Amino acid sequence: MSSMEKSYNLRDRTLRFVDREDEMDFLYEEFSSPRAEMSCGHAVTPMSLTNWCRRLLEEGKSKFVCGQPNCNREWPYVEVRKMALLTPEEREYFESTMALNAARECFNSKTCPGCKFLVTRKDESNLSVRCQICTVKKGRPYEFCWQCLNKWRGQPNANHCDNDGCINQALKTLRTCPEIVFESIKNVRGCPSIRACPTCGSLLEHTSKYCKSIVCPRCKVKFCFVCLKIMTECTKTSGPYEPCSSRVAPRQTSIPVWHR
């Protein structure tokens, strides 16, 4: 990845420059580059765009979607590559990670720790997954843990294997993340800053402290970050800037499975 700050050339006539704040700078790093406009209409710098798209890849996404609330516009990779001024090293990382994430997303697959091939899990309730390639090569059943990606140890159908440190990292994040304070919504206390989308299970961090709604970039469903109801259901009894009638939903203890 690039170690030096990238910056747009103001003489590049293929870019649309705007005099606005960097709307992808979620960490307030205040990059010095001029701001240019993406196809969705939001302003970016090459560094903030690179960081946001890298975050999507690290979360397992294979497509790039604007991170602004209520904007679910998908950016083509060719646009991201150009607007982020990706270096050759960044291009290689982006393209290889996109391909791997796409395979995992489409086929519910993970890499077997034995043979390093992608294995598809047929039973989503069972953490012990058999790799047919390793089973044939070794001449005996070979199973690995879907959670920690090590050779399976322990009893079948358990909620974790007996390997040291076998924990569900997503559930740990939901359990330990800090709370968010909504500045414009009174009497909302104890809302976690990270939620699993109630439709597809993707982990999302709410960056807006003023509106409780969020659109999941994976399944495109708009839901309430406070009560976890679909937004159309939540707004039947309370507005988007008002406390939910059903109050704050507790911290999630399971990850919803997307039944597409």
Automatic annotation (TrEMBL):
Q: What is this protein called?
A: RING-type domain-containing protein
Q: Which InterPro entries match?
A: TRIAD_supradom
Q: Report the superkingdom from the record.
A: Eukaryota
Q: Which residues form the RING-type domain?
A: 20-248
Q: Name one GO molecular function term.
A: transferase activity
Q: Which UniProt keywords apply?
A: Metal-binding, Repeat, Transferase, Ubl conjugation pathway, Zinc, Zinc-finger
Gene3D superfamilies xrefs: 1.20.120.1750
Question: Origin organism of this chain?
Answer: Oryzias javanicus (Javanese ricefish)
From the record, give the transmembrane residue ranges.
none
